[in-house]
Amino acid sequence: MRTTILIVDDHPSFRASARAILEADGFTVVGEAETGADAIDAAAEKRPDVVLLDVQLPDMSGFAVCSAIAGRLNGSAPQIVLVSSRDACDFGPLVEASGARGFIAKAELSGAEVAALLR
């Protein structure tokens, strides 16, 4: 069975690139969202295995989205992988405290990188 993934980013070009990369590497993209509010609703509706979540969204931070998804979906929340065009060190301890599985810089996104975080 293929791992399902929801892509959350406010830039359509990144969502399209991420979809192409992840589908080529065996993931099934079940949806996309461009705001934190849409991400929370889509995670509840689509129940993906993984949410690929941009740290900086127009309406809320990815860290706040992590908390909201975990709270709304309780014990059945998807695994979350944070992404940003910035380096992980720019966010200090926020990534670790978020409850996400980890962080991938957008320039380094690949199915193998996502899969490594899910192990």
Can you describe this structure?
This protein is 40% helix and 22% strand. It has 119 residues and is α/β, with parallel strands linked by helices. A 5-stranded parallel sheet has the order 2-1-3-4-5, sandwiched between helices. Helix 2 (36-46) packs parallel to helix 3. The mean pLDDT is 94.
- Which stretches are low in confidence, meaning pLDDT under 50 for 5 or more residues running? none
Task: Quote the distance from N terminus to C terminus.
Answer: 16 Å
| Mean residue pLDDT | 94
Q: Reading side by side through the largest sheet, how are the strands ordered?
A: 2-1-3-4-5
Q: How much strand content do the residues show?
A: 15-25%
Tell how many strands the DSSP assignment holds. 5
How many separate helices?
5
Let me know the largest β-sheet.
5 strands, parallel
Order of helices and strands: EHEHEHEHEH
Q: Name the helicity range.
A: 40-55%
Shape estimate: globular
Structural class computed from helices and strand pairing: alpha/beta
Cα-atom radius of gyration: 13 Å
What's the short version?
With 119 residues, this protein is an alpha/beta fold.
Topology of helices and strands:
Blueprint: E1 4-8, H1 12-24, E2 28-33, H2 36-46, E3 50-54, H3 62-73, E4 79-84, H4 94-97, E5 102-105, H5 111-118
Helix pairs in contact: 2-3
Features of the shown structure:
alpha/beta, five-stranded parallel beta sheet, 119 residues, single chain, 5 helices
